[in-house]
Amino acid sequence: MTRTLRDIAFMCGGELSSAEDMDVAVAGVVTDSRKITPGCLFVPLAGDHFDGHHYSAAALAAGSAATLWQRDKGLAPEGGGVILVDDTLSALQKLSAAYLSQIAPQVVGVTGSNGKTTTKDMITALLEKQYKVHKTQGNFNNHIGLPLTVLSMSEDVQIAILEMGMSSRGEIALLAALAPPDVAVITNIGESHLLQLGSRKEIARAKLEIAEGLKRGGLLIYNGDEPLLAEVMAEENFHAPEDIKTFRFGLSADNDDYPTGMMTHNEGMTFTSNLHQDNALTLPLQGRHNVVNALAALAVARHYGVSEQNIAEGLTGLKLTGMRIEVIQTASGLTLLNDAYNASPTSMKAAIDVLQSMKTGGSRIAVLGDMLELGPDEAEFHREIGNYLDPAETDLVFAYGPLSAHIAEAAEQKFGAGRVFAFTDKEKLTSDLISRCDAGDVVLFKASRGMRLEHVLQSLNEHFKQT
């Protein structure tokens, strides 16, 4: 975003502390004083244990053209432009909403319990073949990250692909109000945030806030295999624009689009679907859940008129945000599957399916860590994973963490002694895993982000680089 301070004050509902600064040009918005760029606007945010206002003076000294300043924080610093506001977070959000309204790209909002980042990346890969697009980077999908994503867009962006995350009710409603979608995608309803929301139906209600925020005449693309979505949309309290269109995707043949053929190979998946029968599509990802994610992306691409050739090329050249079943080949021939970014029962089963479908001359090894924030039934969810593992398709199971002890306990009843191991010490897990791995093996790493299971993967990778 490039605007004058006069423009920015108007857009965010603030007031310039000095009329002399009205025509000062500002380029870019920064909330981290360590990442100041010349001529940017610094937005000091405040939380329970930090206050960015302490760094406003330093930001101005480092080259920031101006800073927002909350009126209740005392005297504003000198040395640059100052815009006085009642609340800096609210001002940031107003600024992004005003900027989005001014440049007016199409907005594709993506949410879901699992797969939203992968689906966002797929949509981007397809649309960027024909359009100037801008997508959410990393996990900038909340009430701060989304405004920063919008404000980092150039003015010639035609389609903004915005991931919308949540942990409680009302959060997606806020994001959809800041960036009203022309197209909304709901990948699925899983078990993430059960601790906060209490039930999967309440999670469905939270995700469907994106549909209630759709622009008039917008398109809702949702997973038709999830009955809770249809149930919530039939509720009296569900209020989406009356003239929205809907499109259902999934594995079931009663969806608008569904797979008609799937083949797994070392490079990923090749598939056909109800709406793509003539030319098989290749996806550089494994697992039928990723084919389902691709169906959602295909629906968006068709809506925007992307050609079949560009769809095929976009999928083949897909580049994903890190740690989402990233395949790492070591020099020794060991294959590591890195899916340690997050975990829920749904996504963990999907990752296990990928491991168990892989063709290998060695062993298939599952390294599984705790799934967090699952609420009072967390032990049962972990036992469910242990029961899901197939001893005919998985050779060894390593469980890490106090909750994952329930995975090991359930799995051991099927696998027998000597094939299932439980750890609470990461170093012991790492050394034991290294001693049991060999060239030709495939090792899956899957856990919630808080378990930091990628540290074990990195140690394994380094060890087998040297052997």
Blueprint of the fold:
Layout: E1 2-4, H1 5-12, E2 15-16, E3 25-27, E4 29-30, E5 41-42, H2 56-61, E6 66-70, E7 81-85, H3 88-103, E8 106-111, H4 116-127, E9 133-135, H5 145-151, E10 159-163, H6 171-178, E11 183-186, H7 194-197, H8 200-207, H9 209-212, E12 219-223, H10 227-233, E13 245-249, E14 259-265, E15 268-273, E16 276-283, H11 288-303, H12 308-316, E17 326-329, E18 335-339, H13 345-357, E19 364-369, H14 378-388, E20 396-400, H15 405-415, E21 420-423, H16 426-436, E22 442-446, H17 454-466
Parallel strand pairs: 4-5, 5-6, 6-7, 8-10, 8-11, 9-10, 11-12, 12-13, 18-22, 19-20, 19-22, 20-21
Antiparallel strand pairs: 1-3, 2-7, 14-15, 15-16, 17-18
Helix pairs in contact: 3-5, 4-11, 4-12, 8-10, 14-15, 16-17
Describe this structure in words.
By secondary structure, the protein is of the alpha/beta class. It has three domains: 2-94, MurE/MurF, N-terminal domain (Udp-n-acetylmuramoylalanyl-d-glutamate--2,6- Diaminopimelate Ligase, Chain: A, domain 1, 3-Layer(aba) Sandwich); 105-316, 3-Layer(aba) Sandwich (UDP-N-acetylmuramoyl-L-alanine:D-glutamate ligase), CATH 3.40.1190.10; 326-466, Protein-Tyrosine Phosphatase, Chain A. It has helices spanning 5-12, 56-61, 88-103, 116-127, 145-151, 171-178, 194-197, 200-207, 209-212, 227-233, 288-303, 308-316, 345-357, 378-388, 405-415, 426-436, 454-466, and strands at 2-4, 15-16, 25-27, 29-30, 41-42, 66-70, 81-85, 106-111, 133-135, 159-163, 183-186, 219-223, 245-249, 259-265, 268-273, 276-283, 326-329, 335-339, 364-369, 396-400, 420-423, 442-446. A six-stranded parallel β-sheet has the order 9-10-8-11-12-13, with helices on both faces. Strands 17-18-22-19-20-21 form a six-stranded mixed β-sheet, with helices on both faces. α14 packs parallel to α15 and α16 (426-436) runs parallel beside α17.
